[in-house]
Amino acid sequence: MRLHLLFKERAFTAYLGFTCTSGVKVHTKMAPSKKKHASNQPCVIPGGFTVLSLRFRSDSVAQHKLYVKEHKVRAEKSSHRPMDRTLFVLNIPPYCTEAVVNELFSQFGCVQSVELRDHPGSSQESGPKMSKFFRPAKKQGFKVGYIVFQNSSSLAEAKSHPHDAPLVVCTEQHPVRTGAQKWIQQYTESFIHPDKLQQIVDSFMEGYDKRKEEEADRQKKEAEQLQEDEEGWVKVTRGSKGTKARPHSEAANKRTLQKEIRKKKRKELMNFYTWQHRNTQKEHIAELRKKFEEDKQRIAILRTQRKFKPY
Amino acid sequence: MKNKQTAAEDPAEMIPTESHEEEENEAPVKAKRSKSEDAGGEEMVCHPVKLSRSDLYRPPTAEELNQLKEAESLFHCSLLKMQMEELLREVALSERRKQQIDSFIQTVTKLIQAVPDSPEVEVSDLSWLSSAVKVPFLLVPKTTKGKFHMAPPASVDLIGSYPLGTCTKPRIRVDLAVTIPADVLHPKDVVNQRYPRKRALYLAGLAQYLASSSEIGTLRYSCLHGNRLRPVLLLTPPGKDSSSFTVHVHACPPPGFFKPSRFHPQKNNIRTEWYTGLQTSQSEGNEPPTPHYSSSILGDLLPRPHLQFLSAVSSQCSAFADGVALLKVWLRQRELNQGTGCFNGFLASMLLAYLLNTRRISNSMTAYQLLRNSLNFLASTDLTVNGISLAKDPDSTAPSLAEFHNVFQVVFVDPSGHLNMCADMTACTYKQLQHEASVSMQFWDNPTVDGFHSLLMTPKPMIRTSDHVFQLCELVKLQSSCKKQDLLSELMDHSGNYIHTALPFILSLLQQGLGQRISLLTHSLSPDPEWSVESEAPKHKTQPPLSFGLLLRPELAACVLERGPPADSPKAAEFRQLWGSRSELRRFQDGAITEAVLWDGESMCQKRLVPRQIITHLLELHANIPESCLRYVGAMVDDVINTGSEVPSTGEEDSLLVVQSYDDLSRKLWRLEGLPLSITAVQGAHPALRYTQVFPPLPLKLDYSFFDREKTTRSLVPKEGKPCPVYITPITVICHMEGSGKWPHDRFAIRHIRTAFHIRLGELLKKHHNYTCKPCPNHLDVSKDGLVFRIQVAYHREPQVLRESVNAEGLLVVRDNEEAQALEMDTIHKPLLTSTLHGLQQEHPCFGAVCRLAKRWLGAQLFSEDITEDTADLLVVSLFLQPAPFTPPGSPQVGFLRFLHLLSSFDWRNNPLVVNLNNQLSVTDYTEIKNDFMASRESLPVMFIATPKEKTLSMWTKKGPSVQMLQRVVMVAAESLKLLELQLMDSDQIQDVRVVMRPPLDAYDVLIHLNPKQVPLLVQAVDPPTVTFSRGVMAGNVAQCGGAVPVVGYNPVSLYLGREAFGDLALFFCDPHGGTVIAVLWKPKAFIPMPFKTSQVSARNVAVTGEEAKTIPNVEAILEDFQVIGKGLIKSVEARTEKWSF
């Protein structure tokens, strides 16, 4: 029954490939050009994603599938991914850069911005802004994209794009560099003039120093607040981040704890009473026994592995 | 899908082509089965023992206490004791087997006793024998006097190890002595081989009679310890038991038939006149002594008394049989227990008897102590100088020890006082035995070595033990050596066996010639020939080649100069005699004029073969052995790391250049002035700086017209459409900066400050030394002497900063993370390893070459991604630091073989590999490491390597290999080792060591063939390429400084490898040294249909079933992506669909 269904759905998605059901392995290769649906129907799969096909070149045989959906998240209130205008795209092949994606999707309407990420998730711009030379290298992998259109109508258009009209990445008007060409380009782009680099460093450090200063100012202000005013009153606040008088780091906490344990131990007497002495001896024998048992176990294991055959 | 489950369960049966892919492939469909298998696997892992409280603390009995105490004090732990017991159980004969043997012996005895009489004939008349049975004797010279007839034996007795109870598996042999009746023999038969010939005839008679019996399996001849005068008849039981044991039938004279005094080593028993067939004027008194001949006959007289003697000894010492068994295992692992002049089980029993008799060991000792004491005795006693005797009160006719020493090299006299039991042993064999014993004693006491394993479980074949090995192939040539050295009387003594005659002479010649270069010279013991009763006894020349092993002294072996005595000293003549025309008078810098021999050799790899030149020269000069007969196996494997320069070189010189250039750079960095903070350390962190880079970077002069120029910095960049430019390896150097309060306490700020340092360093180096520099955020590339150094500034608190973070409560927490670990690895651990190994190279000159061979092999077999360079280096280091039971490798080849052996035999599951760098670990550290390892085995990497700096986590192997990969590595290593050793030791095999460097590719799913034009390291490929491309290099002298920034570290292959994009779907394998194929293996897990999830749709297709959407990899598109992403580099993508089975 399931097998039957599988075959049906293969016809539906016109996909080539390999299917696995429990117990029975089917290995079928289907002619990729077989297309049943000539109609201009969009293909929507459960989960609300629309499937778009994508080809590298117009004469390519194989095609990747993009899965698109309007961007809808409860928690996020970010301004640069407006819900009504943002298209969420899955499975963007590694050779598609922001510019290429922009180009691909502009057929549905004017694209305002494209954001490519390794994993779906909220956009967190952590830390200070840095030049591209200091950001970690981008991974060459399949990406997810957030495409913000200028008009919300473009979303609908993209979602209703027929499944059998593939998008084409590399066209004559917009060639995409891959392979040796791309690597040479990358290598060339990795150069930066030392003076320019120095500039970047200087400007970053300036920003850093400024932030440091602000921080110091803030702390100073807090400290001032803790001081007595003219009438001898001290204003007690919780502090912005819950400043405490106790040591501030985890390591320090641990240290104090250990110190106390050590102190306690020092006060103990060893092998002083007869019973203590007896206990130590008992422990020693127990230790030997335990070792013996351990060794016995190891031997048993090795024996099962036939590790004692000398030749 | 193919069912390969059975293979997976038994790795020993796996053939290399059936690789790990199967474990992975079967995973999805056989999830259940593999799970149960996993469970089975888990059982094998040690769990901490849990004893109940009552068990642990119950009052001990006296017996238990004794046992525990003994285990603690005698052995390092009770483990060794138990291991030995297990081993003894493995080699002991089972009761069933004993019954089989007993019943077969009975049948044979009954049969033999019924041998019919035959009429008396002349000895030379063989007409009474049927043509189906030949006499097991080389009849040279042909004529002999005397009469012979067959008669039933006087008695048939068991002798040797079986009745004594010291017989062990495998190759069980039971000795049966058949006493020839007295009337067949004559007391004067001792002379002129008459008795040996009669004995051979008697055996032939027995064979003829037994051949007709159906109760005997096969009949073959052999000879005792390779001595052609002492043939034996081998019988096996019929049917399927035929291979389980053999009965050796010896024919003996009746007890006391010959007078022992006749066999005095100074006496002659073979007359020259008879032997040469020429009339000589020598009177009987002048005849040369024939000690070897005499002792071979005397040996026949004594087996029964020897058995009685040994039985008496063993009945007093309860552990005697076990002790002998252990000693036999020890000898066998060292290939000392069989062949001519071996130290066999009989001698081992006699040695123990001697030690017991002389009260060196007591009767109550355990087998363990017996073994230990006998090894200690062997190590400390030199039987070549101070022979020992078992005779308590020899009669007056027995020769003295001094008389034995005059004619034999090794002396160990039997209880009768007449026989030297080590008559055939060469001094070299005994020295080898002594060497082995002392090596064993050394590591036995070392608690950090797995004594049991090294002592009794590790085989030591010559090719893996000796640094250099050579073989004499056409042994017939030794005849002319005997002639040249005038060894007629010795030849007579050895009854025409020219091999054994010439051997001691050759050995002493080599020993003299090689002198201080070697610490030990060993030779293979020629195996006992075996032939069927229907064929003639094989000639001496049919013996397999003689192999010789050299253990080199690394500091002297490669010396090209042999400095002799001053020209006017009396020793000069001797020197000239030894070296012949090669000896010349030379004047040295100190003014002395001496005889000297200068050997050829420019590069290290040529110098390593100086011993070969010496051996070839000496053998040709003194023994008439032409070079063509000599097969020198010393550096056959080294070829694969040949750098291809004009002078054949394996890269040591290039490495040295790199290190020198680096030293210079480091000095210059130290001296730089004008930096805001001072430099606290400059450390190399690249394999090239510890001599272990497979192909060390070469200084290059570039052809600028081959490249494009970058616009702003005028640096060179590769040109489109041209072949990929030459690959320039950036050599990493870490430069630690002084700590200061000015360093910011923020990860991004630190990175920017480091960049500022890179820029500043670059400016200063350019200003003071005119080096071309290219500062980048993460490093500074400096080109110098045609090489490129990549300087990375490091700040020692940076990892700490990376680990710190402030949690929600405002508490400063320190958490380890990968980023910090990676940084520590780069800036602390790698530089430390580099400097440590640099030191090791100074101590062991061939260390670097071994590493490079090992890494070349790993790369060629596509494992370099799983076993990284650092891991491989550490593995090789362990061979040098813990060589037991060997000595540290003295040549790259032997090191490589041991590397393969380590890979294939180490028990990674149960043991950590401890690499004691700089000897920093103490014994307690070892136990600690072991305990930690046992306690958390499952969570630790499969391959666990502990070093002094890092004892619990094995950071070097954290990322790989996986279980499956390790299993495959083990398998391929075992197969390579087998193949290689066979090839090296057997001249009949195809002589192509590169076979082990060609990976089996049929295991992979997709092969991506690369365009050789775009593979920059093509020249390093295992098989040298047929076409070469111009890659922008010019010949000529390299400028020290200046010039444009070259293209550094640009390798399309490593840029291409699709691990980032398709790492979830497939594994990619490639030889980093010029491989032109990328092998791809699908990950079976990725091909299970998965429910549609936004995080798992990369390169997948969706299939909808009702309300469910499942995803499967879009294989067709992926294959096209392989092409698209690697445009220009990819020649073709070969999908082997027929192999796919999802």
UniProtKB/TrEMBL annotation, chain A:
Glycoprotein is among the record's keywords: no
Boundaries of every Rrp7 RRM-like N-terminal domain copy: 48-115
Pfam families recorded: RRM_Rrp7, RRP7
Top-level taxon: Eukaryota
Region annotation Disordered: where it falls in the sequence: 238-258
Family: Belongs to the RRP7 family.
Name used for this protein in its record: Ribosomal RNA-processing protein 7 homolog A
Organism: Cottoperca gobio
From TrEMBL, chain B:
Region annotation (Disordered) ranges: 1-43
Location in the cell: Chromosome; Nucleus, Nucleolus
Gene3D superfamilies, per database record: 1.10.1410.10, 3.30.70.3030
Boundaries of every Nrap protein domain copy: 174-315, 319-458, 464-623, 638-842, 844-998, 1001-1133
GO BP annotations, alphabetical order: rRNA processing; tRNA export from nucleus
InterPro entries: NOL6/Upt22, Nrap_D1, Nrap_D2, Nrap_D3, Nrap_D4, Nrap_D5, Nrap_D6
UniProt keyword annotations, A-Z: Chromosome, Nucleus, RNA-binding
One annotated Gene Ontology cellular component of this protein: UTP-C complex
Any Pfam family matching the protein: Nrap_D3
Function: Part of the small subunit (SSU) processome, first precursor of the small eukaryotic ribosomal subunit. During the assembly of the SSU processome in the nucleolus, many ribosome biogenesis factors, an RNA chaperone and ribosomal proteins associate with the nascent pre-rRNA and work in concert to generate RNA folding, modifications, rearrangements and cleavage as well as targeted degradation of pre-ribosomal RNA by the RNA exosome.
Protein family membership: Belongs to the NRAP family.
UniProt protein name: Nucleolar protein 6
Organism: Cottoperca gobio (Frogmouth)
